[in-house]
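Worked example (supplementary).
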Amino acid sequence: MAVKNIMIVGVGGQGTLLTSRILGGLATLGGYDVKLSEVHGMAQRGGSVVTFVRYGEKVAEPIVEEGQADVIIAFERLEALRYAHFLKKEGALIVNDWRIDPMPVVIGAAEYPEGILETLKKEHKVYVVNATEESKKLGNPRVFNLIVLGAAAQHMDFSKEQWYEVIEKTVPQKTIEINKKAFDVGYHL
Amino acid sequence: MAETNKVIMLGNEAIARGAYEAGVKVSAAYPGTPSTEISEYLVQYKDSLYCEWSPNEKVATEVAVGASIAGTRAMACMKHVGFNVAADPAYSVSYMGVNGGLVIVVADDPGLYSSQNEQDTRMVARAAKLPVLEPSDSAEAKEYMKLAFELSEKFDRPFVYRTTTRLAHSQGIVELNDRQEIPDKEYIKNIQKTVMMPGNAKVRHAEIEKRHEELAEEANTLPVNRVEMNDTKIGIITSGIPYQYVKEALPEASVLKLGMVNPLPKKLIGDFASKVERLYIVEELDPVIEEQVRSWGIEVTGKEIFTLQGEYSANMLREAILKETLALKAPAKAPGRPPILCPGCPHRSVYYVLNKLKLHAAGDIGCYTLGAVAPLSVVDTTMCMGSSISTLHGMEKAKGKEYIKDWVAVIGDSTFLHTGVNSLMNMAYNHGTGTVLILDNSTTGMTGHQDHAATGKTLQGDPAYAVDIPVLCKALGVKNVAEVNAFDIAALEKTVKEEIEKDEASVIITKSPCVLLSKAKKPLYTAHRDKCKKCGMCMKPGCPAMTKGADGTVRIDDTMCTGCGLCESLCKFSAIERVKEGER
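After joint prediction of all chains, the assembly is encoded as:
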């Protein structure tokens, strides 16, 4: 199998490291060679954060090059816009319909772009998920990223049972059920 | 237990695992991105080894040297700039050699993800005559740790083990092995080797030059220096993470992959060069390999087509070597998202007060460096760990005490204990009158909450004496030491004004734990649109949980709010209110 290139983009603090652990676990479970690259440290303090996941028969570099992403999972609209040019022509862009203003916007030094989703839809296959709202319905706004992953699962190479197995192994014991429920919500959207 | 299963591991986790399998008995470190997680993963093996957070990298290295002299395998871990702090012991232990194997793990940061400079550790190691190993993925990260200890003992040399951010924070498949139980070496008193006074050091210098030559000879046949012969039109010498970019972009090329980057295998490189039509050297940062190879009269292409800055990529190599024109889309225009202080961060409250008083701050290294950017815009200088206090002192000595009446120094608790203590001692000793704010959030924040000598807990989780920072400041000779809650803005403003006026050194300790350690149930605060007068006061500190709606009234994002109450204390119209316990 050709190497599959996945990116997870979002804002530092949104839980991209947890989702990258889940994807890493899945690729390992699927028997693939896998490499992931993450951002720790200063960039995690509310900055723009990107995680690269690559799996396949043999993976060399741990990053996804521009123009080569099969799937981009975006936890926030502006971050979807920022990294959309990494997508392949036929790549899928899964976007959580959520806005977090960066500091230049908060202090009035820049404008948050209008109509991001419409702009992206002109050039890419875009799948919009209202995960933050859906997660509030589940009673835990922090599991929104599992909802986004559920929606992205359609574009990857793993069975639902494999997702469940890895979620069980990765998230804290107490939150296994709600995380699986959140995954289901996204999976059936 | 025979573990042979394959697992996925972060580079830093693999380094920790490698140290464990290599039979390391002692490890000391100071947190620094991208090296921090090594110790955090190592602590899981505390039944088999000892590991600690030391107050700084110099101390950590000396602890490791002591353990090596005593005959056990030992290591110290740090980021690249930490290696500068450790330079003093590193240069001299290079002369001393080892008893038990000794490895100094140093993590570089090409691309400056979380650092103040982009220095190349290979240069420092060369200057110190220290041999260097460099892995290129998690699997090698583990194996090279074991090799580093073997070579360290075989050649009686401390080894530098160099990583970069991309390796440290990438995950890959690793095959686990059992721990090797390495018998301790006997300690035999030998002051010619362990007392570096001139007469001894002179002899040792000659000795290590000889050892370095022997190691350079061994490098020619060392399996980690590997030739992958392929098409001979293009030959590439590379090491570390750039090797992966080479394999991705140029799978047809012949490659000499160096696992040991100091000293270099001269004969192996000469042979390889003679077999390829055009030789490239692909190395991030400085032309360390390139300059040496060129000095041997070998024709190479290197930094004239590759940058000295930042990280490389496969696309970059396709363009530079293969002259491919890649049809890449331009990135969309999007406002930047720089890192910021977290919602509820106690530093924001302190900076709000300093900004209100129109003060300049000599800053330091930590989360609070982010006080340099708008809207807080308080920090004027940031250079290196512990420098805030001494920089302010230098300004005063240049221009007089009146000149620094609108200046303070700001430094975090962990940074203060790292190297700020010496600077404060100097200020008190040399009649400085500066005002120093120690932003005490009871942890090492930026690197992800590591304990230190004032938190009351060790890396291994044992309770420990917590340094009494106010008492320490007094003992250093500072008479004026005040403690204020970081969120009490009225008290903080009053204290800062009073202490600046004094013609003596002052320390103000602003106390409030790092907000990321809080687990308060949400939502915590809400903004009432009917009461909001759109005055913008609550927005001044730049809290990311607060936004303005289309009508100009304020909204609080209840997934981000941590309940610090700073906005409530700034609102004059009672439009911001704490959500009652029962309504959460």
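Two points are worth noting when inspecting this output. DSSP finds eight helices and six strands in chain A. Chain A touches chain B through 55 residues (CB under 8 Å).
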